[in-house]
Amino acid sequence: MGAHSPGRGSKRPNGAREAEILDLLQRADGALTPREVTERIGGGLTYNSVVTILTRMHTKQLLTRTPRGRAYAYAPVTDDPGFAARRMRSVLEERSDRQDVLARFADGLSTADADLLRQLLEPDQ
């Protein structure tokens, strides 16, 4: 018998579900309640599962939430490039050898990316 039980939908890792919900929230016109996320996400997620995932994402500071009626409405704290930048900063902050990490990062940049980084760091030149 395989890893899946008969009659059950495929189980996706939490990170994949979070990414799917984050993408949905980033494309939305505004904050969404768990009910609205459940209706739009499809894929067999229950309302309770959506609430759990949204709460976990809020705890991780990926989402803001504001009261709306008897529920909360959730929105991303930043856009996709902002999340990528947060991940990069997080990795750098975890390291005691920041200079070495930054030097290796810079060595791996293409000429175009290095030029762009110089322009961003020194906009007056």
From TrEMBL:
It comes from the Bacteria. One of its GO terms (molecular function) is DNA binding. Keywords: DNA-binding, Transcription, Transcription regulation. GO terms for biological process: negative regulation of DNA-templated transcription. InterPro entries: BlaI_family, WH-like_DNA-bd_sf, WH_DNA-bd_sf. Belongs to the BlaI transcriptional regulatory family. This is Uncharacterized protein. It comes from Streptomyces malaysiensis.
